[in-house]
Design a protein that fits this description.
Blueprint: H1 4-23, H2 27-52, H3 58-88, H4 102-111, E1 118-119, E2 125-126, H5 128-136
Antiparallel strand pairs: 1-2
Length: 137
């Protein structure tokens, strides 16, 4: 078999994966696209290993390492997605910009009127009582 066939297939798989990462808004679909890109890399590693007739089969060994890395990545990624979904109620990437609890970030800002507290650096004003409450909590 020619080397061009698996390389073209891997390029197509990788292109579809890149499109999925750039165009999708759902975190699960982005993780699936990353897995598709890793599978394209695996296909290239095995194809070049077979084409070069390596006696150590380094391409296949690297493929096993990549599969292990992909399994760990998907496990951690799904755990983060589950935590994000529990906290926010959605798996949308655009809504996952802040790392903290969304209820905490708006509660302290709404308590004091603008201009009576100290500036936090985000353009909002937080009263000194709220800052003292954070220091003791």
């Amino acid at each position: 078999m020619h080397l061009a066939y698996p390389v073209v297939l891997a390029a197509l798989l990788f292109s579809v994966g890149v499109y999925g990462v750039l165009a999708r808004r759902n975190v699960i679909l982005v993780l699936m696209s990353v897995e598709l890109m890793l599978n394209a890399v695996n296909l290239n590693l095995v194809a070049f290993d077979a084409w070069l007739r390596d006696s150590l089969h380094a391409g296949q060994a690297l493929t096993l390492f990549t599969i292990t890395l992909a399994a760990a990545e998907i496990g951690l990624g799904l755990a983060i997605v589950l935590l994000l979904f529990r906290a926010r109620g959605t798996a949308d990437i655009d809504r996952a910009t802040a790392l903290g609890d969304p209820a905490e970030s708006t509660a302290d800002v709404d308590e004091t009127p603008v201009g009576t507290g100290t500036s936090v650096g985000t353009g909002t004003s937080v009263g000194t009582e709220a800052l003292k409450g954070r220091a003791t909590a």
